[in-house]
Amino acid sequence: MRPLTVFRHISCEGPGYLAEVLDRQAIPYRLIRIDANEPVPDSIEDSSGLVFMGGPMSVNDPLPWIEPELALIRMAQEKGLPVLGHCLGGQLIARALGGTISANPVTEIGWHPVRSAGTAAADDWLRGIPAKPALFHWHGETFSIPEGAEHILENDNCVHQAFAIGNTLALQCHVEMTAPMVSEWAALYKDELQAVTATVQSEEQMTTQLAEKVSAAQQVADRLYQRWLAPILSL
């Protein structure tokens, strides 16, 4: 099996729980450390799928690695290669496929419930997932749904939480979280938690009963990851 190629944009936002899922199933992957100035590959020929992680930057920023990553996503889409994006990664997918990235009506940080968007794709991808699971969020921007893609997840804070098109899944929420990652982000990004609102939780709110919250969210991640990995494992 060719390895998955995972793109990390900042050191604290690595593959997290996804790496645990891949290791359990002996699925190989290579990590491209954009934060360490590792170059974006110019081909997808040696990858079985592409994964894009999050980061505090915007897809609209003039960063040198954004256009090369967008080009890889377009190549993958043309060839039916599975692509997976988390938060910034989901926004990269949307942008690559003709969508737009803009300010969300509210900043969304912490554990907030999501629900099915009621589409056929949602029924497929969310089979076996509870009706309103609480997932982790940390974003101020949102993506539009590109032409040809199907809306999967939504909530009251951010209408577009996920979409799928073929073997590509774009997530606005963070299903890759582990308990240490939640605590680390709360410490590193504490300045963003000064004004607590209905959509921005305090460090105490997001870390209370953290093990239970992460365990429940990882059950959702298991379903989404297994559905995304299905065409890769069938090769």
Description:
By secondary structure, this protein is α/β, with parallel strands linked by helices. It contains seven helices and ten strands. The strands form two sheets. The protein has an eight-stranded mixed beta sheet. A two-stranded antiparallel ribbon has the order 5-7. Helix 2 packs across helix 3. The chain has one domain: Class I glutamine amidotransferase (GATase) domain (Rossmann fold), CATH 3.40.50.880. The termini are close together.
Helix/strand order: EHEEHEHEEHEEEEHHH
Output the CATH class name. Answer: Alpha Beta
SS summary, helix count: 7
**CATH homologous superfamily (4th level) name:** Class I glutamine amidotransferase (GATase) domain
Low-confidence stretches: none
Structural domains: how many: 1
Helical fraction:
25-40%
Q: End-to-end distance, in Å? A: 8 Å
**Class from helix and strand fractions:** alpha/beta
* CATH topology tier name: Rossmann fold
Shape: globular
Q: What profile does the largest beta sheet have?
A: 8 strands, mixed
Sheet with the most strands: spatial strand order:
2-1-3-4-10-9-8-6
Give the structure's gist in a few sentences.
With 235 residues, this protein is α/β, with parallel strands linked by helices. It has seven helices and ten strands.
Features:
two-stranded antiparallel sheet, eight-stranded mixed sheet, Rossmann fold, 32% helix, 235 residues, 7 helices, alpha/beta
